[in-house]
Amino acid sequence: MQRGMILRRITLFSLVIGIAVALTWLVARAMAPGGYSGFEVLTLLAFAGTAPWTALCAANALLGFALLLGSRDAPGLVLPAWRLARCGAPSARTAIVICIRNEEMGGVLPPLERLLYGLRGKGDFRLWFLSDSNAGLAEEEEAIAALATRHAGVHYRRRVENTGFKAGNVMDFCDHHAADAEFMLCLDADSEMSAEAVLGLVACMEADARLAIVQQLIVGRPASAAFPRLFQFGMRAGMRIWATGQAWWQGDEGPYWGHNALIRIAPFREHARLEPLPDGSAILSHDQVEAVRLHAAGWKVAALPIEAGSMEGNPPALPEFMARDLRWGAGNMQYFALFRLPGMTWMGKWQLAQAILLFAGAPLWVAVLLFSVANAVLGGETDKPALALAMFATWAAQHAPKLLGYAEVLCKPALAASYGGRAAFAQGAALEILFTTLLDPVTLFSKAMFLAVLPFRRSKGQSGQKWAPQNRADRGVAWADAARLLWPHTLFGLAVFALLPLSAWGWALPWVAGLVLAVPLCVVTSSPGVSAWLRARRVAATPEELNPPAAPPP
């Protein structure tokens, strides 16, 4: 490993340790009056367990913010191949592969058609539909056949059994259909990429013969529903900052997020094949495992922290968002069985640990709340100003990528103008912060409940998850449906307020307001009327909404 990369990683982990210690000290200081009760010790221990992930958020954010404000070419700084990439049509053949399963083709095809028109005459690109559908087959085949009449190089392959889920679908293509293609661009059914973004990834790959995966940032497609509109507004700002900071210290051992990425087929076919887990179940969160295996084989996996021209759809409402989150959680928890894979690099192990931390902190946060409530009920003393400072510092550290992403936009007039100006951007950011403040407790409680029962599902050799078709349609959520899904969250929040003395409601409110209001939050953020109101006023609008891509010629 180059000395410079070692210094970068030392810098990152020094920041993480320093921030984690500082946050834990602030909480300990707030609990110091009157000595430490048993519940205060338990609270402090649970909080200390959450501190590494919180500190990593803040450290990545500080590094990414410094790079984006201090460098004119942050992508080139973190990915040398970006600077070496040449202009012009690529020499290699690239297969564009899109995995589908019972999808509404009317939503899948238009972004692909725009991409195919943009790539015409600019290289050798072939489009492959990799179908695992078991319903709507006639409509699927008819839609793809119509596309093939308008564009050369469109192929369709359907498997009868979706063995290995998406990872198995892609590997089946590599084994039997890749032919003489050197690269493949992996897309999901809700992916959208511009020709310029794809050509940039291919140029990076051709500039570095040891690069196995180059992964671009993925932002949300313009959303009509309120929930994805608000969620992806903040996610976009945070991801840009996070990914830039992370790419700086991870270098050639970066992440793979499963789609909107270019892959060198030969090493992927050789090293990224996934066998079943010891209990016989398939690996669900395949992407990071594939990246780790390529690291171990000496191949580079890199992130290109550029967001232009790379998009995806986000869940249309809270129920679909929670289902996706828990599906990811089930996959990430499988990584405990993979740490002893032969030949893994230390960074590969860290990648798996980081994925676990993303979900493992949820039960600890619930424990922090429960122990704090018990301490307050029993009359435990706290330094209220110190507690307020500790809570604010923790919240700011957790959300540092997004907050500094907002600051970056406000610091750059041209970037702010793409959002409609600073005032419009600040309005969207303020509403998103309120939305996230209410959403965070709901998602944490859901993860905690899910992880509590996951080991029992595993004991029967079941992952608890299947690759079911996703609902991508905007729709409202009825009050009764929201109540059936979220009654445990509401009941838990109300119980906390009922148990707490009035003097403790101040610090508890930011924790449990989202739980108490979970049902209204679900209904309102899926409401067609609220969604239309936001769209009409362009609240939380993205650059792609304000300046949509040109439609392909008829």
Structure described in brief:
By secondary structure, the chain is of the alpha/beta class.
Q: How would you characterize the largest beta sheet? A: 7 strands, mixed
CATH homology group of the largest domain: Spore Coat Polysaccharide Biosynthesis Protein SpsA, Chain A
> What is the CATH-assigned architecture of the largest domain?
Alpha-Beta Complex
Number of helices: 22
**CATH fold-level label of the largest domain:** Spore Coat Polysaccharide Biosynthesis Protein SpsA, Chain A
Shape: globular
CATH class of the largest domain: Alpha Beta
The mean pLDDT is 91
Helix content: 55-70%
Question: What do you see in this structure?
Answer:
The chain has 554 residues and is of the alpha/beta class. 62% of the residues lie in helices and 9% in strands. The chain contains 22 helices and ten strands. The chain has helices at residues 3-31, 38-70, 74-78, 80-84, 105-119, 137-150, 165-176, 195-207, 226-250, 265-271, 286-296, 318-333, 346-377, 384-398, 400-411, 413-417, 422-458, 479-499, 505-516, 518-526, 528-536, 543-546; strands at 93-100, 124-131, 154-158, 183-187, 192-193, 211-216, 219-220, 261-264, 300-304, 310-312. Helix 5 (105-119) runs parallel beside helix 6 (137-150), helix 13 packs across helix 17 (422-458) and helix 18 runs antiparallel to helix 20. The longest helix has 37 residues, at 422-458.
